Amino acid sequence: MTEENLIRRDQDAGYIIAWKRKYEFETGKFKDETMTYGEARKKCEELNAENPENTYWPEKLKQDPEWHLVYE
Prior knowledge:
- The chain is of the alpha+beta class.
- The chain has a domain at 15-61.
- It is built from 2 helices and 3 strands.
- It has helices at residues 37-50, 67-70, and strands spanning 15-21, 27-35, 54-60.
- The protein has a 3-stranded antiparallel sheet, with helices on one face.
- The radius of gyration is 15 Å and the shape is flat.
- It starts with 14 loop residues before the first strand and ends with a helix.
């Protein structure tokens, strides 16, 4: 089982905003700013209201694997 819990609390840290276009195959993530789940959820609600052609959701930022430890 993964370490991510299915229950998300507003104070949980390490979330970013992910998005996709509704009618095209374009997706992305705003990785420049991490925030709590509550902050990310509120910002997603605002972005969804402002941009109806896109869908936004909070997503847990996964750490990049530390490949240098594998190859040492």
